[in-house]
Design brief:
It is a single chain. The protein is mainly alpha-helical. The chain has a domain of 50 residues. It has three helices and no strands. The protein is flat and about 90 Å long. The two termini are 36 Å apart. Keywords: Membrane, Transmembrane, Transmembrane helix. This is DUF2207 domain-containing protein.
């Protein structure tokens, strides 16, 4: 993490140093190279503020409309809740463990798994 931060700050320092040297040696050429990225950044910022990420997600009144579930839906939900087992009870599975005919030998059991 520290290594990545060090690389980042060295890169930022060199970029600033290169920009300052460029402005001091060829001011018009360096500033003309900045015009296009600044214009694009301004357009993106304007579009973001104008359209916004949640602009169309909100309703026109400003508050969300709550839909009341129907009586049929509520009866289904109540039926599902009643049929669910309580957490204290153990589920019964249709599987059964069948003991093998070879028998168990403690000598063949590996010491380390």
């Amino acid at each position: 993490m520290i290594r990545h931060a060090l690389i980042f700050w060295i890169t930022v320092t060199l970029a600033i140093f290169g920009f300052v040297i460029g402005v001091l040696t060829q001011p018009f050429f360096t500033l003309s190279k900045l015009i296009l990225p600044l214009v694009l950044l301004a357009i993106i910022y304007y579009a973001y503020k104008r359209m916004g990420p949640g602009k169309y997600a909100r309703s026109s009144s400003g508050s969300k409309v709550k839909v009341k579930p129907s009586q049929k839906t509520m009866s289904k939900v109540a039926g599902i809740r009643k049929t669910q087992a309580t957490p204290g009870k153990r589920k019964s599975y249709p599987f059964q463990v069948i003991e093998g005919s070879k028998g168990k030998n403690d000598d063949q059991v590996p010491k380390y798994h």
